[in-house]
Amino acid sequence: MKPKVNPEAEGVLPRRLPAALVILFSLYLLSALMPPKPKSAFDLNGFAQLPVLNGGRTKPLDTIARTSLLLISGKQSVHLDEGRTLSAMDWLADVLFRPAQASTYPVFEIDDPDVLGLMGIQQTAKRRYTFADLEPHASDIEHQAEQAEQVKPEQRTRFQTAILNMENRFALYQKLQNTLQIAGSENWVGDLQEFENHLGPELKRHVANHSRGSELVGPLFRELEKYRFLEHVAEFYPLPLPRASLNPRRWISFGSGVLARVQSDKYHPGIMAYATLSDAWRNEDPIAFNQALHDYRQWLKTMVPDETDLAHDEFIFNYAEPFYQSMIIYLVVFLLAFLSWLVWPKILNQAAFQLLLLALLIHTIGLFSRMVLQGRPPVTNLYSSAIFVGWVAVILGTGLEKIYRNGIGSMVASVIGFLTLIIAHHLASSGDTLEMMRAVLDSNFWLATHVVCITIGYGSTFLSGFLATLFILRRNFDRGWNEETATALERMVYGIVCFSMFFSFLGTILGGIWADQSWGRFWGWDPKENGALMIVLWNAFILHARWGGFAKRSNLMVMAVFGNIVTAFSWFGVNMLGIGLHSYGFMEKTFVWLLIFAATQIIVMALGLVRISFSRRS
Amino acid sequence: MPPMANSVPEGTAPPMMDSELPPGHPPIGGDPGMAPAASSKEISWKVPEGWQEQSPSEMRVGSFLRKNNGKQADISVVPLSGDAGGDLANINRWRGQISLGPVADNDLPQQSQKIAPAGRPMNLVNYANQGKRLVAAIYHRGGRTWFFKMTGDDALVAATKPSFLEFLNSLKFNDDKAD
Amino acid sequence: MTTKPISPPDLLERLSSVKLTLTCLGLAMILVVIGTLAQMNMGTFAAQKEYFNSWWIFTTLGDTSVPFFPGGLTIGALWMANLLAAFTVKFKYRREDAGILVSHFGLILLLAGQFLTQTLAHESNMPIQISQSRNYTESFRDTELVLIKSASNDLDEVTSIPASILSQGGEIHPPRLPFYLVVRHYMKNAQLGMAGAGGHSLATQGIGTRVAAQEIPTSSSDDEPNTTTIYLDVRQGSQSLGVWLVSLGLGAPQSFLANGEEYHLAIRPRRYYLPFTLTLKEFHHDIYAGTDIPKNFSSLVHLSDPAKNEERDALIYMNHPLRYGGKTFYQASFGEGDRLSVFQVVDNPASVTPYVSCALVVLGLAIQFLSHLLEFTRKRP
Q1: Whole-number pLDDT of residue C290
Q2: How far does C304 lie from chain B, in Å, by closest CA?
Q3: Where are the domains of chain C?
Q4: Where are the alpha helices (H) located in C159-248, listed in sequence order?
Q5: Which residue from C255, C332, C340 is facing B60, i.e. has the nearest CB?
Q6: Mean pLDDT over each residue of chain A, to the nearest integer
Q7: What distance in Å separates the CA atoms of residue A151 and residue C265, rounded to the nearest whole number?
Q8: ipTM of the complex as predicted
Q9: Structure-model confidence comparison of residues B86 and B57, the more confident one
Q10: Is residue A491 less than 8 Å (CB to CB) from chain C?
Q11: How far apart are CA A275 and CA A254, in angstroms?
């Protein structure tokens, strides 16, 4: 028996490296679980956890702050001119309670020179503008947006798309300003007490004395209009009603809550709570703020315990940023896997693999947290599909690494994990709608089956494509290329293509069955269906080429790389068809990136067909 | 690493196009394509004094004549589907009928008047040229546009305008809840 | 050199080759790409007809239409031939080939079923308002010219002429009518508006004297049907009763007298009559709180079929259609503030084939790949 010579046992340090790295990164992750430090005496973290209803689901104010700011500004924080930075929650609190102050913050990201020109501003290096900059031009913006809206989306000019986008964000800001108080109130508690003592009873008297539908006149009408405005314009609904209430809605707007006082004998507890918060925030009174907040949160815990808990969890999810963290770790895994082919193969391979498992764990936690928070299947929109594609590819890659232990699985898994999470990040920040739609018509089942299968198909096709890329690059450039690695890769690619074939076919026909159940048409040659079909056809092409003897090793790899192009276009390209290729921002950039990606893959395919050898092999 | 907003709350991501509906499903809600064809009794009105109802041989909707001292004013009610080419195009064609030049889109608010007989928003125009006058109202309702048009002798049409407005006030649609 | 005639076994060999399969797959992929791109310009329905449901795709070179790519039917037929040939001469019927056999058999069924669906299935829709009764469905795209005469108090005699006949122009002699028709001008799609000065309208009677019709390109969107418009000359012998403008875009029918009887004239979406009647009793539409997003919608209809002694209520809602009389009524859409419900009505005798065939394909794939996987794990403990 040959004595085991371990050339890497050059000391304790390298051998302990994997464990050390895992511990290091675990500590880092645990630190990410600590809540953000409050910058002032105000209990902003507590305020951020207040649950409200928006877009069909309850969520913490923190989410509202982040998504609104992200939509308006493209970032989740505000950089003030004097160098200070405001968090999203800080910003939202000012918008809600100190609109005059908030309107001086540069948050509106405007890139289009024509939109700026509409407001008489010349484009400079400055990218963000304040609400005060925009407000004088409100009617112009609305008028232009109205015109633009009448044109079909694929026929809009660049300006029209941009101005519509601008108007959406502008309107969102205005709605936020008028959700929890009449914008500009200086003494909101006092105003509400005034309503309670005078206006309310007057209105009640009027209703009792006059027939339905008779017009209110004069000052009573004007006052009432303000509260009606609050009721209708609200961006979110903060007040939960008891289950036994007569109102069919579970959550109502602040304005509704005020108006409800006319017929009931006291305000909803949230009314005075939010009003106190508002006044305290404006008057720089953290003690009053924190007290009112604490009391109200206690009340909410008894009233809507489930929603309060979920809001708390979502708050943690928001600042923990699991996908960002796993993305960092994937990058480290990539470096380690790459290094493991140069030096200390066993140790670095082990380190890479263990960190990969850690990253996968966080990625999985993030994915499942999303599912729990929304009560939806994992893939509901383009953003979540990117997260899921990455997850599938990483799981498969991890499996391959476990079987072959040669760093290939880890490398490919980390690359795809990293790339898909970056894509997801970009999808999130350039979104053109604020909130994804809630389940329409029992679509949860089909989302869980059809969409998940298709996304698994995407993920696995990308995996085979990247494995093939690795094959081609290593075969051409790596001196250490050998038959064993080649065979292993060939087996991997073939196996994954079979896997992709199965899931992409299954996913495609589940879509057809869904359509048939819904409206009687199994296959309608819809662009989305066609995109999925392309992947099925290409995978079938590869398999038949192999069985027919036309795709031994190199051809198999080249075809698998082409599968990347097919999948990328199917995933993103189809979405662009409806809007057309001329629309602003998001779609334009996407198309450019798609072309760049396709070009890189074509280069790899060319390399696959041509052998470039630097090494002298016998 | 620069602070990136990575694990963004799900909200900001753009939805897949109609991801919630099966592929190819038609859009839900809103007015589905064509409005159903008019039935004979879709609209009714109170005929003002002095208006002779013409036999509805043209279209089962409305045709009236007012005669006075040998002069005529002709009143018609015409429903067309959709927006019938847009208010501007139709108004300019009417102007052409009495030899007036067309107006531009941004002049339209000055050249027409917004009225609301019985709460229904309509666009009213009133043009006169070379002894002829045209008074007409355009009303968009559901998937259809209703044209109420009075033309004829300048003085007679001007004198009939009040009863024309009364006529508009008296309109009753079969399914009035749509208003 | 003598050339051997291709004997049937040779032909079958060639038809069953993998090369043909690859050719079909490749052609299919190209077809899907160009067909999908074409949809942007001409709408899904037109693209489907021209690209996927046709034998050849044509393009115009100069003045002539030249076929430049096989259409969906040709590719499908080739593929079917390939599969059948493979079953005849290529596939081995051993136990280890079970997966391949099952999946490819399923594929044959799938292709055949889709072909049957494309030729036999018929879709129409039924917009119905609350308390309205309907015993017909309407085509979304096809229109018909109707001449209606009141035969008695509650019966109308309707003569309907599909637009496909109108588009051919010329004379039309409908039986049982005391006049004949000449289509003076046919426009597949037109924009109607109030008439202006100076226009020479072909119409001599009816609303056509007040309404102008301008021909516009046929609709490329699947949401907008074409406003079929004609100028119709109604003649008796050598005399014309008048020329009418008849259009889908007119908001009401017109009428005229012939031989003392009143006839109504209109163009409407083509109707397909049913031997039973549906009445919409209620429509419900729930939305998610604080949004416009529909949670569910449902229609309560009353089904009346005296011939079969059926008088019952039925609830139609998403994923729960009403199946009756060979037709399936799906809740598709709604409008007009919840007073209008729209059903998609599908008549497809081949509707079950996708389920059977796809189940077979999935089963076949699973068998095949699982056996690969087992083989692989056995070799690599």
Answers
A1: 58
A2: 22
A3: 8-121+353-379, 122-134+273-347, 141-271
A4: 163-166
A5: C255
A6: 84
A7: 34
A8: 0.88
A9: B86
A10: yes
A11: 10
- Do the chains contact at C194 and B38, CB–CB below 8 Å? no
pLDDT digits (tens, 9 = 90+) for A237-285: 999 988 776 666 788 889 888 888 887 888 888 999 999 999 999 999 9
CA distances (Å), origin C309, targets A53, B141, C304, C306, C322: 50, 41, 8, 5, 17
Contact C195 B149 (CB under 8 A): no
Q: Which of C51, C122, C288, C292 to mutate to test the interface with A (most CBs of A within 10 A)?
A: C288
pLDDT digits (tens, 9 = 90+) for C77-107: 999 999 999 988 888 888 888 889 999 999 9
Cβ neighbours of C334 in B, within 8 Å: 28-29, 32
Closest approach of B159 to chain A, Cα-based (Å): 34
pLDDT in tens, A186-228: 888 888 888 888 877 877 777 777 655 555 566 777 777 888 8
Q: Which of A76-80, A475-479, B106-110 has the highest mean pLDDT?
A: A76-80
Q: Which residues of A touch C219 (CB under 8 A)?
A: none
Interface test with C, best of B28, B97, B99 (most C CBs within 10 A): B28
Question: For residue C250, how many other CB atoms are within 10 A of its CB?
Answer: 30
For the record, the structure tokens of A415 come out as 């690359």
Q: What is the pTM of this model?
A: 0.81
Tell me what pLDDT residue A154 has.
Answer: 67
Cβ contacts of B146 within 8 Å, gap of 6 or more: B43, B77, B78, B79, B138, B139, B140, C251
The amino acid that residue A92 corresponds to is: L
Residue C339 pLDDT greater than 50, yes or no: yes
Are C290 and A501 a contacting pair at CB < 8 A?
no
Mean pLDDT of the region A510-530:
86
Of A380, A429, A586, nearest to B5 by CB-CB distance is A429
B30: nearest CA in chain C?
C335
Residue among A178, A180, A140 at smallest CA distance from A159: A140
* Contact of A7 with A13, CB cutoff 8 Å: no
The CA-atom distances, in angstroms, between C79 and each of A8, A251, A540, C71, C76 are 58, 58, 13, 12, 5
Q: Are C267 and C251 in contact (CB under 8 A)?
A: no
Q: How close C5 comes to chain A (CA, Å)? A: 26
Chain A neighbours, 3+ Cβ pairs < 8 A: B, C
Task: Report pLDDT digits (tens) over A30-73.
Answer: 888 888 888 888 999 999 999 998 877 788 999 889 888 988 88
Tell me the three-class secondary structure of B82-136, residue by residue: CCCCCHHHHHHHHHHHCCCCCCCHHHHHHHCEEECHHHCCEEEEEEEECCEEEEE
